[in-house]
Design brief:
mainly alpha
């Protein structure tokens, strides 16, 4: 079960990375991210979206390592890292849930909730 959870979480993170890449490139979909205040993100938020892509890749490595799909991190790093990610996604549920952007609330809140549940499954393994 943790392997499936890690792979599904990685697929979601990959989709989010594509989304963030589109935002960084200037796609007019800003209502779904960063509070939804901008249709096209300003430069600082575009940089934030680019950084998010790197972070999502690191998140995937931690989850895949913890689920023993890959082995690139010390065990302590993947164990602690998975719990940190769980907390991050739980906070993300709350933060996206209170977003002023209805679009962001309706898409990113459930996305973070699914990621939190999948990460918990991996963390408990």
């Amino acid at each position: 079960m943790p392997i499936i959870a890690a792979v599904v979480a990685t697929a979601i993170l990959a989709a989010l990375a594509v989304f963030q890449g589109m935002l960084a490139a200037g796609a007019p979909i800003g209502r779904f991210a960063w509070g939804g205040a901008h249709t096209r993100l300003p430069t600082a938020l575009r940089i934030g979206s680019a950084v998010s892509i790197v972070l999502y890749a690191l998140f995937a490595v931690v989850l895949l390592d913890r689920a023993s799909v890959i082995s690139v991190l010390p065990d302590a790093v993947s164990v602690v890292g998975t719990w940190v990610l769980f907390g991050y996604f739980v906070i993300g549920v709350g933060m996206n849930g209170i977003s002023r952007s209805r679009s962001e609330r309706l898409t990113m809140t459930p996305c973070c909730l699914v990621l939190a549940v999948l990460t918990l499954i991996v963390a408990l393994a």
